[in-house]
Design goal:
globular
Length: 259
């Protein structure tokens, strides 16, 4: 995969430049959590998960890869795809989020974003987008996006930039921010090619906590196509949190446990 090849060298530096300090000098400065699985549900192991969110109590997902990108409405308990839209082969769909009854979907390299009606999944608009699209979430007012760098961007509903913040851990920028979810006033961000999720202060970009999701997917369930952790969804109606990964056969309801 080109995306993996482009950042593979950088990913090799992650354990040296970030993860090791996280386990030593930064422990006293940020909260440390591990994951407790509360429930697990079936998930399409052929779904290259890019975005995951709830709307109206239902679970929605965008999947990536050229020629395979989709927007889906799912049955949480069975994993059944209740409705699916396919994107043109020229688009690699990325993160997705719902704001004011509209679904906003980024694309990776095409520099466009799409808007759909959340209730009917009908196409509404295409916007020009100046960066690579990775993750997207919302605080209920602004769209918040990532582009694989250490910066998060706050946009209005017409994708006009309002502000941005540099995400830092112990004063150092943290790169490869990917899937995003806004939970209880904080931004959760998965670090691509890692088992880490960071909890970020949206005002200043400071990382306040780290969640260790290592071994969330049982090794016995892994196959050759099984890829990395990616997919964070929060259901505000139940206040439950769900995690999955690219080509994972399971979706997990989880709780945080302090280390």
């Amino acid at each position: 995969m080109k995306r993996i090849a482009n950042i593979l060298f950088g990913s090799l530096l992650v354990p040296l430049l970030l993860l090791q300090p996280l386990c030593t000098s930064c422990q006293a400065k940020i909260k440390q959590y591990k994951i407790k699985v509360v429930n697990e549900y079936p998930h399409d192991r052929h779904a290259y998960t890019q975005g995951l969110f709830f709307y109206g109590g239902e679970l929605y997902e965008t999947t990536g890869q050229y020629g395979e990108s989709t927007l889906r409405r799912l049955d949480l308990t069975t994993g059944e795809v209740k409705e699916k839209l396919n994107f043109s082969r020229k688009y690699f769909a990325e993160g997705s989020a719902e704001l004011d009854g509209k679904i906003y979907i980024l694309t990776w390299e095409s520099k466009v974003a799409f808007v759909y009606d959340a209730a009917t999944l009908t196409y509404e608009k295409t916007y020009s987008y100046p960066r690579e699209g990775w993750g997207i979430t919302t605080d209920g007012t602004s769209l918040i996006t990532s582009d694989g760098s250490s910066r998060l961007y706050f946009l209005d509903k017409d994708f006009k930039l309002q502000r941005s913040v540099m995400v830092r851990l112990d004063g150092r920028p943290v790169h490869y921010l990917n899937e995003l979810e806004y939970i209880d006033g904080k931004i959760w961000a998965n670090m691509y090619l890692s088992d880490l999720i960071f909890i970020i202060n949206p005002e200043n970009g400071e990382i306040e906590a780290a969640i260790d999701c290592a071994d969330l997917l049982d090794k016995a369930l892994r196959e050759e196509a099984t890829d990395v952790l990616n997919g964070i969804a929060y259901n505000p109606q139940t206040r439950k949190i769900y995690l999955t990964g690219k080509n994972w056969p399971r979706l997990y309801e989880v709780k945080l446990v302090a280390k």
